[in-house]
Design brief:
There is one protein chain. The protein is of the alpha/beta class and about 250 residues long. The chain has a single domain, classed as Rossmann fold (3-Layer(aba) Sandwich), CATH 3.40.50. Helices cover about 45% and strands about 15% of the residues. The chain contains eleven helices and nine strands. The protein has a seven-stranded mixed sheet, sandwiched between helices. Strands 1-2 form a two-stranded antiparallel ribbon. The radius of gyration is 16 Å and the shape is globular. The two termini are about 25 Å apart.
């Protein structure tokens, strides 16, 4: 799909109220395969590979705001007025910006492994990762993602999930991944989620990237959100706890 002057990989399937999936840094729309399959029987499921990620083009500047604008354009091209939005990791910042800019287009918001605006050390780390990607490629960063973002339980008991996360990272375009790292490094807090917008937060008890405190803080600021903290789960929530995430999401949307 040609969106805002670039080609994005977009998959649309099913029929019914729309659900829009937004992946995180280092991910693709395939992150949500289990959840998309479960919802497609009763919903129009829209999955997007964000600019610079997966099968989408790396073109022009990339920012949290540009990703949010791309989501609006995707819905326009698909003829969809509004959708329940499901987002992961860096995508939770994108989804919050999208909801703030286009409140009439978001019927509910589900945030998996919600992240905060990065502290200065986090910004430096993302800029360093971008430099590594440009100099050495994805193979230089994939082991760290697997080691640091998955729980020990997942790495030990479900090595196939670790292998899939490695594959997601390894298949990224290094320049696109680098630009998305820089987008996260430049991110600012989008502000609290509108209390009128239904909000579900799901995170892992062992998530070091989007720790439970971040989800609880967002819930407290919202005032009427639901938070689920999944034991033995790290940051790749929808993969590490596919069944639990699907159950929570199906009930919520």
């Amino acid at each position: 799909m040609n969106v805002n002057g670039k080609e994005l990989a977009v998959e649309i399937e099913g029929d019914g109220p729309a659900v829009l999936f937004v992946h995180g840094l280092g991910g693709t729309s395939n992150f949500y395969q289990v959840q998309a399959d479960a919802l497609a029987g009763a919903h129009t499921v829209v999955r997007v590979d964000s600019a610079g990620a997966g099968r989408s083009e790396t073109a022009g500047a990339i920012s949290i705001e540009s990703h949010a604008d791309d989501l609006a354009a995707v819905l326009d091209e698909a003829g969809i007025d509004s959708a329940a939005v499901v987002a992961h990791s860096m995508g939770t910042l994108v989804a919050r910006v999208f909801a703030a800019r286009h409140p009439q287009r978001v019927t509910s918001l589900t945030l998996l492994g919600a992240v905060r605006e990065p502290p200065e050390a986090g910004r430096r780390a993302q800029r360093d990762r971008a430099a590594t990607l440009r100099a050495e490629g994805t193979a230089a960063v994939a082991p760290g993602v697997v080691a640091n973002a998955l729980s020990e339980t997942t790495r030990t008991d479900r090595p196939e999930v670790a292998a899939f996360v490695r594959e997601l990272v390894m298949r990224q375009d290094p320049e696109g991944y680098a630009r998305n790292c820089e987008a996260l490094a430049a991110a600012t807090d989008p502000g609290p989620v509108d209390p009128a917008l239904p909000l579900l937060l799901v995170t892992g008890a062992d998530d070091k990237v989007g720790p439970p405190e971040a989800s609880h803080d967002l819930a407290d600021a919202h005032g009427n959100a639901t938070v689920h903290v999944l034991p033995g789960v790290g940051h790749w929530t929808a993969l590490e706890a596919a069944g639990a995430v699907t159950d929570h999401l199906t009930k919520f949307v």
